[in-house]
Amino acid sequence: MNDPRGSIWRKWDLHIHTPASFHWQGGLRFADMKQSQKDSTLAQIVKSVNDSPVGVFAVMDYWTFDGYLEIQNYVERTGEKLNKPILPGMELRIEAPVDFRLNIHVMLSDKLSKQQLQDFKSKLRIGLISKTLSDESLVACAKKLDASVAQKHGFTAGDLKDDRKLWELGCKTAKVTRESLEKAVREMPDKTCLIVMPYDTSDGLMKLDWAKHPYDDSYFMQSAHIFETRSPDNIDLFLGRRTKSNEKIFDNFMKTLGGKPKPAVSGSDAHKISDYGAFPGDRITWIKADPTFEGLLQLVNEPEGRSFIGEIPPKLLRVQAHTTKYISSIRIEKTATSSLAEVWFENEIDLNPDLVAIIGNKGNGKSALADTIGLLGDTRQADDAFSFLSLFRDPKQNKAKNFEATLTWESGSVGRKLLSDPLKHTRPELVKYIPQNFLESICNEISSTTETDFDRELRKVIFSHVTDADRLAKPSLEELISYRTEEANARIAILRQELHAINEETIALEDRLLPEHRATIEGNLALKKRELAAHDDSKPVTVKKPENDPTKQREISKIAADVKDAKRKQREFEKVLAAAKDSELTQTLQISRIDKVLGKLDNFQRLLDSFIADCPISSRNRA
Fold this sequence. Notes:
- The protein is of the alpha/beta class and 623 residues long.
- It has five domains: 9-124 and 176-318, Metal-dependent hydrolases (TIM Barrel), CATH 3.20.20.140; 132-172, no CATH class; 322-433, no CATH class; 466-511; 564-623.
- Helices cover 45% and strands 12% of the residues.
- It has 21 helices and 15 strands.
- It has helices at residues 35-51, 66-78, 114-122, 135-143, 147-152, 163-173, 178-186, 214-223, 232-238, 250-257, 293-301, 303-306, 314-321, 366-376, 389-392, 436-443, 453-464, 477-512, 515-537, 550-614, 619-622; strands at residues 9-16, 54-62, 86-93, 103-108, 125-126, 131-132, 193-198, 226-228, 264-265, 285-288, 307-309, 327-334, 347-350, 403-409, 414-418.
- The strands form three sheets. Strands 9-8-7-4-3-2-1-10-11 form a nine-stranded mixed beta sheet, sandwiched between helices. Strands 13-12-14-15 form a four-stranded antiparallel beta sheet, with helices on one face.
- The protein is elongated.
């Protein structure tokens, strides 16, 4: 039953019961039915399975395969069609150091024969009486119990004399040994048996005190292939997802689990037909695999990406929300008017929404399929870039005109073209396609120092992943980058100017540290010293003090006073002159600064006018 689309997400209910279970709640058990009643019930089971949105079921009756075998016998006997696989399983209780009944499930391949299933069951042994599992052994096990145990499970002392009641009591209390289960699994054909361990569901392993019984906890955690759980936190742990809530226990949990993730499932545990596929709390089991036992084996190998418990997997939500982005199928066939005798295409292929690669030997049609999808999706490539269609459209024969292709999207929309139709770049591009020929040509240009087709194609691919909102109404990556970096580039230009001024000042200071600058300073100093020495050498001859002539003294005193007064006035004039020069310098600096500010204001006004012209606001907002 391998799906031609490959692995897709389906609902799987791996825990249903039939009237073969002692705890059946949907009416009479098989053992109490007449043949007509049994056939009617089996017909209801087959109808319920066929009508259900669930893709795979597993019968998990207590202690027996009888319910599964009844369904198979009915289908073979009546010829009624069972549209979905039903896997055989058995719900057991196993010996463990716990004060509750620890459940464990075995799930087997539906390719096993009736005899092989019976052989498996015959290897299981009930520990209390050390006998092979059978209805008779369940009765014998119950007989070993005293009245207080029977009363604890809802049975009276009188029930212990009724084999039917004893069988029910045995079903509720019997436990198989670990050794016998190990042996039964070990002796089955390879890859036909899986152990499923309830964890936080009915009588699950979570209730075992791992601190008191660490070895038993590790044994069951590592022996099981799949775990039944409904808790989101436990699902994360089993699937190997480290989260904030499990950070502290994650490493120890994974070590106990055996060092690798394991699948998580959640069955309906239905005990009546109407509950088949009705998952408690919408904790629906979704598995991405073929609807077969082999699909379960693949799940065990890759649990993280193939197991989901919840209303719907995220990928299916994405497909449902973007049906125009996912291709459902493609069909290629001859046109009704074709007279070409050659057989090239007559195919319809359903596509998987997770399709990532087309694999096949050379000449098996990989390029033909990819080219056709690109053609129907109105790729922006040139017609001569196609690897297959370029040859198939050879002008001499043009076989392409004899074939029509149809692309159906998940939305239901359909596109049709002849394989000879040219690309029309005026249509919206629905498929981004890089043909092999084009890829080879642009890869050969990588070493070029000038802009190449590779550069342009790379920018197109990058731009295609930018959301419409983030594109800011720009038609290309180049324009978007230019728009988003315009102010940053202007800021960079300003910083470069500032850096240029700092560099010039730094260079000037560094020049003063050079030996040449020092030599210049020292030379100037030596020159000044020589000028000072020459000045000292040219000092005038000392004039002898005149004799003390009163008249001369009066004239000299008067002249000295006049000279002193003239010097005072000179000093005052010099002060006024210095103040005027200082004022002139201050005014000149102020005028220069004002001119510079006026220049900056003029430049700022120009920038502001340019900014207002470029700013994407409406004229109404400007006002």
